[in-house]
Design brief:
The complex is a heterodimer of chains A (503) and B (448). Chain A has 503 residues and is α/β, with parallel strands linked by helices. Among the domains of chain A are: 19-82, no CATH class; 357-476, Aspartate Aminotransferase, domain 1 (Alpha-Beta Complex), CATH 3.90.1150.10. Helices cover 32% and strands 10% of the residues of chain A. Chain A has helices at 42-46, 63-74, 97-103, 121-138, 150-167, 184-191, 209-215, 238-247, 341-354, 358-376, 397-400, 406-415, 443-462, 464-468, 481-486, and strands at residues 142-144, 174-178, 195-199, 220-226, 251-256, 275-278, 298-300, 312-315, 321-324, 392-395, 422-423, 432-435. Chain B folds into two domains: 67-78 and 344-445, Alpha-Beta Complex (Aspartate Aminotransferase, domain 1), CATH 3.90.1150; 81-338, Aspartate Aminotransferase, domain 2 (3-Layer(aba) Sandwich), CATH 3.40.640. In chain B, 37% of the residues lie in helices and 14% in strands. Chain B has 13 helices and 15 strands. In chain B, helix 3 (81-87) packs antiparallel against helix 11 and helix 5 runs parallel beside helix 11. The chains are: A alpha/beta (503), B alpha/beta (448).
Chain lengths: 503, 448
Amino acid sequence: MNEKIKKASRHTNQNEGLIFEKSSPGKRAFELPPLDVPKAEPAKVLGAPHLREDIEGFPEVSEIEVLRHFTRLSTWNHAIDLGMYPLGSCTMKYNPRVNEFVARLEGIATEHPYQPQELSQGCLRILRLLEQCLLEITGMDAITLQPAAGAQGELTGLLLIRAYLQKQGNPRKRVLIPDSAHGTNPATAVIAGYEVANIKSGAQGQVDIEGLRKMVNEDVAALMITNPSTLGIYEQNLPEIAQILHAKGVLLYMDGANMNALAGITRPGDLGVDVMHLNLHKTFSTPHGGGGPGAGPVAMKKILEPFRPVPILAEKEGGRLALEPVRPDSIGKVKAFSSNFGVLVRALAYILAYGPGVRQATEDAVLNANYIRKQLEGFYDLPYSLPSMHEVVFSDAIQKKNGVNTMDIAKRLIDYGFHPYTTAFPLIVPGALMIEPTESESREECDLFIDAMKSIAEEAATQPEIVKTAPHTTRVRRLDEVAAARKPVLRWKPAAPRSTAAD
Amino acid sequence: MRYLPKSPVERQEMLAAIGAKSIDELFSTIPEKYRLREALKIPGPYSEAEVIQYFKQRAAENAAGYASFLGAGVYNHLRSVVTDTIIQRGEFLTSYTPYQAEISQGTLQAIFEFQTLMCQLTGQDVANASMYDGSTAATEAVLMAERLTGRQRVLVARSVHPEYRDVLKTYAKNSGLRIEEIPFATSGTVDVKALQGALKDDVAAVVAQSPNFFGAIESYAPLAEAAHAVGAMLVVAIAEGVSLGLLRPPVEADIVALEAQSFGLPPSYGGPFAGVIAAGERYVRQMPGRLAGQTTDFAGHRGFVLTLATREQHIRREKATSNICTNQALCALAATVHLTLLGKEGLREMAEQNLSKAQFALAELLKIPGVRRTFDAPFFNEFTVALPRSVKIVNSHLLREKIVGPLALGTPYPELTKHALVCVTETMPRGEIERFAGAVKRALEQPV
């Protein structure tokens, strides 16, 4: 093992097959209290045609086996709790445990969305306070907490824009999206019924104002912009961009994925943004959980307020809160029930822990990104030299000369005990290394990361094979993704021969 | 601040290393006039104890301590503490989407097991790694059918959850889909004659739910026959997953949209839950959402990866099958652990207990003068009754006895005023069911 690898050592883990392979008839891990009413005979009550036969292959295991199975699987994952997770654009910050605790409280986790509103005032007050906090942080006028994730927030935002324009007589045809944007932006625009027109980034990685001017006309509904951009660069011209758009009746949508660079420092509402979403699982610390759940509240200016998804949280006499189901101009519902409430609870717990100190978190996040940038400049190519905010984007141009690409470097980072950064995104940077440390990393952890990156740069120059064949220390090596896609095996089947390779 | 791992000295040293005089310098690209000079007006900072106290106070303003007979798409079921123990492990809780397969095998194998469980339950070939919830799963299933058939007319049973239909309408509005409702028959299930009358070769999908919003169990074969006769697809939504422990899976369906909340997820005032789309293997390339697949590494070891990503937004952008990115992975993991704990026998027993308790509750209610069944189709753990007076008035009486009564159907279904949707799961003790029936009787006896 390379002595330069300071953080990690070879990870010991246990082999574990699929749960279906451990199953044995008659075992169980859960018992119900005895039935205290007369037993209904399914065949008699429902009729035999409605009944199912045996669920072939369904697991039959004991409690300790279940616990061990999933515990063993868990040890095959990297996690924030184990160390830095510098995925650019993903904001992998610490997920405070008290947030998990309060989301599970009796009276919070137990509440039914259709219970009477007089018995839901606690839930509604949580929603109200979160609304107020997010409005204060974004500088916007109104908000909906309903969207389940960022992409659904984007859709909600575009539907608000569409409804607003429609009300004025013409929903328009097109949404402008910079070529540095997340893939969700164009995918969302299509669902909202718009064509997508891509805007090329300027030489500095920012929106090219003159190019934009030429594209903005009465057929354009909105510009979707990420600020800071996916290059981690602050879009200085946002107010001017807003003016250009507004002059033609075009609305400005801000993708708030990178709000961790702005919270407490500046407010999109003051910059001319008309509507934006927030990713509570990024900026507001709710856990990513291996891919979700998230929440994607959408904050907006007054002009869009009448179109918010129902139900609307409203204040009544005596401070009582109510969910109002009917609004004539509403875009409708984007998901069943009020929201991903449990995620919202966690986000509010995070905000309350910081209070106005959210600003300090933002400052530390930007400090960490710039510290890493400074230390790695020269070792890695920096394609855009404008100041970085919360993340920094390098490219593999130097290492490519030795046949080492960003994916290889990312995989080698694993051997050093770090999760890779985001690879090959944004698309406008060939061979991108997109690094977002977040505020949750100590200087010590940042230094270890910097050492690892420098060491890999050296390896790429002197012994590129070790980088190109990484990782070397994981349970499995690089996996054959081509075979996985060509002949997809997407489920276990009882008839399949047992694999002995993993046992 | 306890979440921030830096001392003031370390911050200064890091700034010095960068070559910046102050932290403000790092924000110099933000024009001065747009920089906040005042502190944000938000409460806090709170210590951990204060955070807990705040939420305990809010919890006390809710319905803790009430017996509830609400279902309607969100169900209260027994959950093992083991589920929460597993999903709170940092390696699951604080990991990202498993794009880096070598250090995400735990999440990937768990997703593969989830997909397998969902296939086993629904009788379908493939299932995805999750959607936001049942309502968006049903909606995306319809969009999938639109892509597969190239048609834009959609027939949705009026007995499908009203909120699922609302979400479908929101998504359909701008995609050219034309949504039409198919009425329910006196049995409470889809009016097959009306469906046949509406079906033509321009229909992309027929959407039905089973058990449907009224709790009634649909027969899939006539729906599938009618749909397939004109080349339309049958989309079946399942809001109460526990029913699959007992009921025949919708094997006739082309696409199944399942809500997995009943598998170990608390009601949590409406979310987060987990939706699932399951379908025949031939449709997989039009499926939205992530999929985990089995493969091998260079050394031949079995491993798992996210696969068929060319359907997804991060690769295909405006040509993707959906805009979904973040899904409900941790909820899907909870469902996986929960179903593994229940196992074959446990799931069946839980389903049988639901059936028995709902039957018992109906029998108790039917003893009350003036109470009758609305529909006569077989039901699982939910059923609809007609009351001789307003459900809302009855429910306000029940509240005084610390009971959250059944859902009043009059709002979503004006034709069903004075009808109530009653849900009884295995969590409801006999004594509470009897107390509920007694309270309903007293409420109906109250002078107007």
